[in-house]
UniProtKB/TrEMBL annotation:
Protein name: RWD domain-containing protein
Segments of skewed composition (Basic residues): 137-152
Any single Pfam family the record assigns to this protein: RWD
Biological source species: Chiloscyllium punctatum (Brownbanded bambooshark)
PROSITE patterns: RWD
Chain residue ranges for the region called Disordered: 133-165
Classification via SMART domains: RWD (SM00591)
Top-level taxonomic group: Eukaryota
Gene3D superfamilies: Ubiquitin Conjugating Enzyme
Amino acid sequence: MTANEEQTMELEALRSIYEGDECFKELSSASFQYRVGNLGDPKAFLLEISWPEMYPELPPNISLNAFFNNSISSSVKQDIIAKLHEQAEANLGTAMVYTLFEWAKENQEELMENHQPVVSAVTLSMTENTVTSHTSVAKKKKKEQLSKSQKKKLADKTDNRGELPRGWNWVDVIKHLSKTGSKDEE
């Protein structure tokens, strides 16, 4: 059987095995991605495997260069790839993409045991910008539109810092009761 025939058979097998699996993605007829772990899991990673021309006689190309993996340090990525290459060497001459994906799933904890999330400056600045933009939106919502006469009245009531004196909007209970009491008598 030729390499192309073996690749075609493996492609059909992969499509039937991973049909409906949201973790699996066929990038092309010779390139596949599999997300190992759940989306919210900090130890999840996206494994990409592609076939060279002489696959399965040659090991597949294994990559962790997807944007999804940016939080994983390069040393952990190199370690994962090295361990997957060992598995690939042991399976030379046979269809192995399914085997590699499943091995990675079974050994996820071990592969990611040295993983320390990398917090990039981009993430920090995005977080700061988000906080700043949320704060400015909140400030804009609180601001009311006042007429000129309302602004003048407000300026007359404020102190040197532009703040209203304590109790400026309190109701004088005695005056209020005496006004309502005189209306009740009439």
